[in-house]
Design a protein that fits this description.
mainly alpha; 10 helices
Amino acid sequence: MQEKIDEEFSSKVDFSQEKDLFHTVISNGVQLLVTYLESGCDVALVTMTKVAWQHVETVGDQSNYVGTIADKITAVVPLIRENLVSARKYFTNFCHKFANTFIPSFITHLYKCKPISTVAAEQLLLDTHSLKTILLSLPSISASVGRKPPLSYTKIVGKGMEKAELIIKAVMTPHERAADFVASYLKISEQDLDVTNFLRVLEMKGLKRSEQQALIDLFKSSASRSGKLTTQSEHESSTIRKLERLIRIKPQV
């Protein structure tokens, strides 16, 4: 348009607001697709939390809830990919957003699986590996031509699902020797000094309050020596303080 109108008016043509609105509409549309797929998977994750994990005595194939998630992804993703075939970057964006939404949700529901026996933890570890495989294949699932997922996507899945695996491995660690358990937890969790997360693992193990306290005290002692003991609320408060400081900073002219 700038090329076709008179030169004196070309500089006044500006569609920046329209461009921003267009990108907002696209972003909202992609998010709706993510929400639709996520809602279908949430049903399976709730089912996972209702399994009597303390009574699981053998490790078998992947659990039913994993199959449900796989079926949902297989039914939905190819259709989305087909309709975004001419705009590959939007499909890639969909994959990124779904992984960044689904994995934290999976971990949240994983913490709700309690108490867990050692054998059940092994089953959950197998399920987690199966889900990781499904997520890695998501971009090209049911495609006629195989295509490697973007490296950025595989990094999101790898890092997120590794955290889930580490949580389960921490649950599987024997706690009878308190010092050894705390040391193992810190090593497995890559020095996660959040007391809230440590308490969640103890609850997943099915430990009584009286059993938890000695471990919590030892954890706090070990964490305090590093000077990095935190809680979830403290982390959130710290984030809020940082945002407040940024808001108070005035741009220099």
